[in-house]
Amino acid sequence: MAVTKVALVASMMACMLIACSYSKSTLTCDQVTVWLTPCIAYAVLGGNVSSLCCQGIYSLNAAYKSGDDRRGACQCIKDRAAYIPGIDYDRVNKIAGKCGTKCPYKVYPSTNCSAVQISAKNLHKKLDRICIKPEKLHICSALETSRSSPKL
């Protein structure tokens, strides 16, 4: 009986650790680099943005979970771009638009990536997901009220 309780507690702790590590996962610079490497040709040479580059942009945008993810990706792109001879930062900043999406920041050698924040629009989308079960989280009605309030 005691062994069963220990096994049960150990199993529950393992599940909690897995759940916590999954929910706090952040982007790595290696992930960002893999996704955006196909964009280097356009950033240096111009021409057309490849479909692989756009797929990387979409993957990066889908992977953002927090402001920390955005700041980390910004810093990664800025740091790695500094090592690419002939990179045109104006082209870099046009890539997302050419792929039909937006980037929440502009990348230049002088960009302060620590100032990058999650957009209010995306924050509301994330909060809407939390509010799916309002009986468990009583913040939903307050959020709805704040969203419908007129802007000053």
Automatic annotation (TrEMBL):
Gene3D superfamilies: Plant lipid-transfer and hydrophobic proteins. One of its GO terms (biological process) is lipid transport. Residues 1-23 form the signal peptide. PANTHER family: NON-SPECIFIC LIPID-TRANSFER PROTEIN 2-RELATED. Plant non-specific lipid-transfer proteins transfer phospholipids as well as galactolipids across membranes. May play a role in wax or cutin deposition in the cell walls of expanding epidermal cells and certain secretory tissues. SUPFAM superfamilies: Bifunctional inhibitor/lipid-transfer protein/seed storage 2S albumin. SMART domains: AAI. Belongs to the plant LTP family. Keywords: Disulfide bond, Lipid-binding, Signal, Transport. Pfam families: Tryp_alpha_amyl. GO terms for molecular function: lipid binding. This is Non-specific lipid-transfer protein. Residues 29-113 form the Bifunctional inhibitor/plant lipid transfer protein/seed storage helical domain.
